Amino acid sequence: MIRVLLADDQALVRGAMAAMLGLERDIEVVADVGTGEEVLPAARRTRPDVALLDVQMPGTDGLTVAAALRDALPTCRVVMCTTFGRPGYYTRAMAAGAAGFVVKDAPPEHLADAIRRVHSGLRVVDPVLAAQSRTSGPNPLTEREREVLQAASEGATVADIAAALHLSGGTVRNHLSAAISKTNATTRAEAVRIAERNGWL
Amino acid sequence: MIRVLLADDQALVRGAMAAMLGLERDIEVVADVGTGEEVLPAARRTRPDVALLDVQMPGTDGLTVAAALRDALPTCRVVMCTTFGRPGYYTRAMAAGAAGFVVKDAPPEHLADAIRRVHSGLRVVDPVLAAQSRTSGPNPLTEREREVLQAASEGATVADIAAALHLSGGTVRNHLSAAISKTNATTRAEAVRIAERNGWL
DNA sequence: CGGCACCCACGACAGATGTCATGGTTCGCC
DNA sequence: GGCGAACCATGACATCTGTCGTGGGTGCCG
Q1: Which of A163, A175, B120, B201 lies at a C-alpha separation of 20 to 30 Å from A148?
Q2: Would you give the distance in Å from CA B133 to the centre of its chain?
Q3: What is the distance between the alpha carbons of residues B30 and A4, in angstroms, rounded to a whole number?
Q4: CB-based burial, A87-96: b 16+ in 10 Å, e otherwise
Q5: Nearest CA to the C1' of D12 belongs to which residue?
Q6: How confident is the model at residue B139 (pLDDT cuts 50, 70, 90)?
Q7: What is the pLDDT of residues A127-167, one digit of tens each?
Q8: Which residue numbers delimit the HTH luxR-type domain (chains A, B) (predicted)?
């Protein structure tokens, strides 16, 4: 029996996935939570063999949780599950010690499959994403650039960002300019889109 | 036995929802499709009692499909299902003739419940969303403003939009200015965010 | 130590953006 | 017919944005 912990912020799909996995003879869902913060306590309590984590969650995101979980329960294998097949997510998930990566576009059978493989010590990779993550490369943005672009992505103006990060307006524009150039964009908005698509934010 | 058609672009969650609904004694999933275009043919073939449609789908979106389905199979009731509880989606879904509206945050039991209620002739509404849709009101943007803002949301500059819509740059700026003012925003980017949140795009 | 990368800042400039005033057209409605 | 709403357009203006050059500070590595 493979003990599975489920983490996804959308209760409906979480319940649905639990139902689907429950149909499998060798899989047992022992816990399901809706936020990143709940994962660790639930995992300590239920000792799952595999944790299925959504990347996007309110509060602590799945990637951070994956790393923490790896430290707290080294025997528990992690499968990341996400709506968006962004190359950056993939690489970051692997860096955070995930053993598998499944996009929500994949055929349903893939999920139970991935859980079994990961449980038996194998790694489950999405070949398309793996290729993309090689071509798109690692995050080219420096920490400051990422921070500034992130703020801009939420609709903040230069003045807003400058105030929030205690910088001068000129410096903010410099960082934005660098980010725009590194993403091969021509506008701030475009840079945001590209960075988001690659999971660089 | 309630015959249900499932439409959601993410195969994994579609399969999971099918599995969950399959556990219910009185519900039978007779078709499941991944795009808006496939809905009508599948519905004609399988004659479902209830269609569960995701709002966001590649190609034809769920709201359009709902209206078409209402014309083609008037006996088939429609439940809209979506990740984002945007007030505009709710009102548009109701206008398109949907009988129910479920957000993916809702507890899993709600889904089967909603299907049963809708099948028995009732309407299923999300009280929170209904309230929001009253306060946020109907789409204040004119068709042109919506069109221009939509283009801007995809990262296009004024010049790009002007070229795409065969307008002068000044006109585009005027429409954008009007949209910004109507959304109580101060920037184009902010206007986009607000409009998206309300489902006005 | 001398590079090198990153961070911060200032100034200046072209171009884009948001606002406003003004004027034209069409269409539906009282 | 008069009126208002939506559409398109122009020109002018203040402001914001993106770019570039320059300079100074830190820390790391060969």
Answers
A1: B201
A2: 14
A3: 29
A4: bbbbbbbbeb
A5: B170
A6: confident
A7: 888 777 776 667 788 888 888 998 888 888 888 888 888 88
A8: 134-199
Asked whether the beta carbons of A79 and A4 are under 8 A apart, the reply is no
In the stretch 112-151 of chain B, residues with CB closer than 8 A to chain A read: none
| Euclidean distance between CA atoms B36 and B64, whole angstroms | 8
Instruction: Report the pLDDT value the prediction gives residue B166, as an integer from 0 to 100.
Output: 87
Instruction: Give the pLDDT confidence score for residue B136 in this predicted structure.
Output: 63
Q: Measured between alpha carbons, how far is B125 from B98 in angstroms, rounded to an integer?
A: 10
3-state secondary structure of B194: helix
Average pLDDT over chain B reads: 89
Q: Domains in chain A and their CATH numbers?
A: 2-135 (3.40.50.2300), 143-197 (1.10.10.10)
Q: Which of B20, B47, B19 is nearest to B31 (CA)?
A: B47
CA of A70 to C1' of C28 (A): 67
Is B145's CB less than 7 Å from nucleic acid strand D? yes
Chain A residues 167-186 within an 8 A CB cutoff of chain B? 186
CA of A92 to C1' of D21 (A): 37
Contact criterion met (CB below 8 Å) for B69 and B48 = no
Query: Average pLDDT, stretch B73-86?
Result: 90
Q: Is the pLDDT of residue B61 over 90?
A: no
- The residue of chain B nearest to residue A12, with distances taken between CA atoms, is B108
Show the CA angle centred on residue A102, arms to residues A96 and A108, nearest 5°: 155
- pLDDT range class, residue A20, cuts 50, 70, 90: very high
- Contact (Cβ atoms closer than 8 angstroms) between residue B30 and residue B3: yes
What type of residue is B83? T
Provide DSSP, A70-100. Answer: HHH-TTSEEEEEESS--HHHHHHHHHTT-SE
